[in-house]
Amino acid sequence: MYKIADEGMSIASGRIKLYIVNGFLGAGKTTMMQQLMDIWHDKKMAVIVNEFGDAGMDGAVLAKEGIKLTEINNGSIFCTCRAENFIEALVEMTKMDVSLVLVESSGLANPAGVGKIISLVQKMTNDSYEYKGSVTMVDALGFWDVRYTSVMAQQQVICSDLLVINKIDLADEKDVEEIEAELRQMNPYADIIHATYAKIDRKILDAMDGHYSSSDRNWGGGKVIGTQKWLVSFKGDYRQEEVEQWLKLIAPYLYRVKGFVKIDGAWHYIDSTNTLISIKDTTIEPEEDRVVILAAGNQPIKEKMDEAWQKVFGDGDRKLVYV
């Protein structure tokens, strides 16, 4: 399936620094990616974006002129269903003129096998990467909601070199302290920092060496609850306050909502969790409106979405279409 590189395989001069950004749904991975792209604006970089659904949204948000962006959707880059695509993308990037590769994994990814993937890529590319490690975003507002119900969230924590407790400006100081104490129990080897808007010091990133996360680890506990995903389209004309009202009604049942929809005749980007609702205008012009909705597998989310839609929009021409 995979071909080990010949000695003469062409790679970019010097070793390419590689960072992986993990984090459960809504923790701030895309915001962190934007921060990193700004921090290393002087570097020649490539970006890999991985989304659990078959319709990617983050790629459009992260796209920048001059930066090679590869999207791998409909599964996790660490599992067998998409690992081959991930490996091929990393190999291909060694043939480009880049010095840095940033990877944003799916919020539902289990990174336990990243060490094997990195090892294989190194063999295929004559050790062309300097793996700097895994940064995992932790939502200060939503951590306890998934601490004991999501094996993926647990794996992301224990397979990290750096844990970033994000959104501390929105959380109680005592709650942040309790989250940090729990994280240290789960992963006593990772550095832990606090952040707002995913802001981080470049010196911390430069000091990472990827030693811990490159050793594959598995979390033994946790109750497994599946995840359901819905891709929907909004048909009709909408006002922002109406969309916000609909999202508030279904928010308790959701992990994440993100996508593009036209509101008051202009494109807006929805980026919401069960704790925060965000709808902002955007200069991005997608080909069509698409909204991805992710929820725990034990939630009656379709029924709740339909009930909320009926309550807010009634029986008029405005429809919620399941794609």
Question: pLDDT under 50 segments (min length 5)?
Answer: 1-13
Gross morphology is globular
Classify the beta-strand content into a percent band: 25-35%
Structural category is: alpha/beta
Strand order of the largest sheet: 3-2-4-1-5-6-7
Could you tell me the radius of gyration in angstroms?
20 Å
Give a short account of the largest sheet. 7 strands, parallel
Describe this protein's structure.
This protein has 10 helices and 13 strands. Strand 2, helix 2 (58-62) and strand 3 form a beta-alpha-beta unit. The protein is α/β, with parallel strands linked by helices and 323 residues long. The two termini are 34 Å apart. The chain has helices at 29-39, 58-62, 80-93, 114-124, 143-146, 151-158, 173-186, 202-206, 240-250, 301-313; strands at 16-23, 45-51, 68-73, 100-104, 129-139, 162-166, 191-194, 227-235, 256-263, 266-273, 279-281, 290-296, 319-322. Mean pLDDT is 87; it is low at 1-13. It has a 7-stranded parallel β-sheet, with helices on both faces. A 6-stranded antiparallel β-sheet has the order 11-10-9-12-8-13, covered by helices on one side.
What's this entry about, in short?
The chain is an alpha/beta fold and 323 residues long. It is built from 10 helices and 13 strands. It has helices spanning 29-39, 58-62, 80-93, 114-124, 143-146, 151-158, 173-186, 202-206, 240-250, 301-313, and strands at residues 16-23, 45-51, 68-73, 100-104, 129-139, 162-166, 191-194, 227-235, 256-263, 266-273, 279-281, 290-296, 319-322.
